[in-house]
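Design job #97: recover the sequence.
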C-alpha cells in the first residue's frame, strides 16, 4: 500500500483492513516520503503493520514495487489504495478465485464509491476495459458517467485490466513479466501490467462477491495538469510498448487524430490543463525514443499471444467517439 500524507484516510483504511476475515496476510505500508505524521500514527496505533519508508516520492508504481519486492516469498500480492475500505470477506473471495484457476494472474473486486455506496467508483468500478486506441474505461463507468450499482455487474467475468485501487496479483507471474513500470509514476501502470500478463496468455478476472469502497481522486485532483498529463502520456506509452509493430503503425494515426480532436475541444471549453497535458505527452514520447525501444523490446520478446487474441478483449472502436458523438454512456450500449 503506497502512501503519501493523509492521516485520517490511512487510519480508516488500516482499521478496515484489520477486520479482514482472511487469516494469513501481511499489511505493508510503503511511505513515499510523507511530510505529515501519518507514519508515526501507524507505529503507535497499528503494531502489526510493516512500514517501508522511501527517501523520496516514487509514485504509485514505485511504492507498489517496493512492497512487492518485500513480499517476494508470498504466493500473492495485493495492490491497495490508502483511501479505500473493505468488507470483511473481500480478500477471501479474491484468493478463492486465484486458487480456482492457475491461468488467472490478477483479479479485482467490485469497487464502489465511499461517498455514495450505491454508486460505482470512478477508479475501476466493476472491472477495467479498454478500446483499441488504449483509452481505458470500466464496467459501470465510461468517461464521466458513473452508474448506480443495480446488480447489473454481479457475475464473474474476464477483464482487460484489474484496478490498482485494489487487485490481487500472482507473484510467480510478476517474476516472469516484471513489475509495474516506474516511469508511469501513477495512473495506468496496472493496465500496462495486465496487458503484459495477457501477452503471455494469462487471464484477468472480476470477482463481484469481493467489495471495497474508495475515495476516488484524493491523491491527484481530477482537473490537475499532472493527472491529465500522466493519463494521456501513459496511455500512449502503453501502445508503443505492447502492440505489435503492424498494429502500432495501423492504430497510432487514429489515436493522434482523436487526441487532436480532444485538444481542439479542450480549447473550446477553456480546459487549458488538458490541452497542455496532451501536448506535453507527445513531446515526452518524441524525446524518449531509447527508453521506449528498450521497454518495447523486453515486452515483445516475452510475447506468446498475438494481438488478434488480445484485441478480442478490447472495444473495437473509440470509446471517446462512442461517448461524445453517439451518446453511449454504458457498457451495455456498446
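Job complete. Output follows.
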Amino acid at each position: 500500500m503506497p502512501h503519501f500524507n493523509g492521516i485520517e484516510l490511512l487510519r480508516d483504511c488500516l482499521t478496515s483492513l484489520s477486520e479482514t476475515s482472511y487469516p494469513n496476510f501481511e499489511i505493508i505500508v510503503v511511505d513515499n516520503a510523507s511530510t505529515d505524521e501519518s507514519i508515526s500514527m501507524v507505529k503507535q496505533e497499528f503494531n502489526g503493520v510493516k512500514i517501508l519508508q522511501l527517501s523520496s516520492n516514487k509514485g504509485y508504481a514505485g511504492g507498489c514495487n517496493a512492497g512487492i519486492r518485500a513480499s517476494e516469498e508470498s504466493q500473492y500480492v495485493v495492490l491497495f489504495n490508502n483511501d479505500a475500505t473493505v468488507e470483511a470477506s473481500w480478500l477471501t473471495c479474491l484468493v478463492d478465485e486465484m486458487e480456482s484457476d492457475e491461468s488467472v494472474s490478477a483479479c479485482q473486486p467490485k469497487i464502489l464509491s465511499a461517498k455514495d455506496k450505491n454508486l460505482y467508483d470512478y477508479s475501476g468500478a466493476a472491472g477495467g476495459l479498454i478500446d483499441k486506441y488504449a483509452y481505458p474505461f470500466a464496467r459501470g463507468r465510461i468517461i464521466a458517467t458513473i452508474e448506480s450499482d443495480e446488480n447489473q455487474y454481479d457475475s464473474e467475468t474476464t477483464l482487460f485490466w484489474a484496478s490498482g485501487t485494489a487487485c490481487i496479483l500472482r507473484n510467480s507471474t510478476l517474476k516472469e513479466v516484471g513489475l509495474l513500470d516506474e516511469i508511469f509514476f501513477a495512473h495506468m501502470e496496472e493496465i500496462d501490467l495486465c496487458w503484459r500478463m495477457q501477452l503471455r496468455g494469462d487471464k484477468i478476472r472480476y470477482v463481484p462477491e469481493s467489495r471495497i469502497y474508495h475515495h476516488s481522486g484524493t491523491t491527484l485532483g481530477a482537473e490537475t495538469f499532472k493527472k491529465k498529463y500522466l493519463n494521456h502520456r501513459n496511455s500512449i506509452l502503453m501502445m508503443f510498448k505492447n502492440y505489435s509493430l503492424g498494429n502500432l503503425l495501423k492504430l497510432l494515426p487514429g489515436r493522434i487524430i482523436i487526441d487532436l480532436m480532444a485538444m481542439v475541444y479542450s480549447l473550446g471549453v477553456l480546459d487549458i490543463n488538458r490541452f497542455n497535458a496532451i501536448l506535453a505527452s507527445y513531446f515526452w514520447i518524441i524525446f524518449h525514443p531509447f527508453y521506449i525501444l528498450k521497454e518495447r523490446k523486453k515486452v515483445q520478446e516475452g510475447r506468446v499471444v498475438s494481438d488478434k487474441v488480445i484485441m478480442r478483449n478490447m472495444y473495437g472502436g473509440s470509446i471517446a467517439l462512442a461517448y461524445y458523438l453517439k451518446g453511449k454512456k454504458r457498457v451495455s450500449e456498446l
